[in-house]
Design goal:
three-stranded antiparallel beta sheet, about 30% helix, about 50% strand, alpha+beta, 2 helices, single chain, about 60 residues, elongated
Length: about 60
């Protein structure tokens, strides 16, 4: 198993658009060799941005690459 983990700052007020884009991305990964799942976590919110942490799970690092 291989996990790819990232974090991203999304400008305040743009969160909904970002979350919709992530859901669309999830559907586009169907059938990709070695892909297992995608998780999106909403973390810290302040006046400037919301921090998201997301990871995708793959059968192997080679499948991810």
């Amino acid at each position: 198993m291989f996990l790819a983990i990232s974090r991203l700052k999304v400008l305040t007020g743009k969160e909904n658009k970002f979350e919709i884009a992530c859901k669309d991305r999830e559907q586009s990964t169907d059938g990709i060799k070695g892909f297992k799942k995608f998780n999106l976590l909403k973390k810290i919110m302040n006046k400037e941005f919301t921090l998201y942490i997301f990871h995708s799970e793959w059968n192997s690092e080679n499948d991810f690459i």
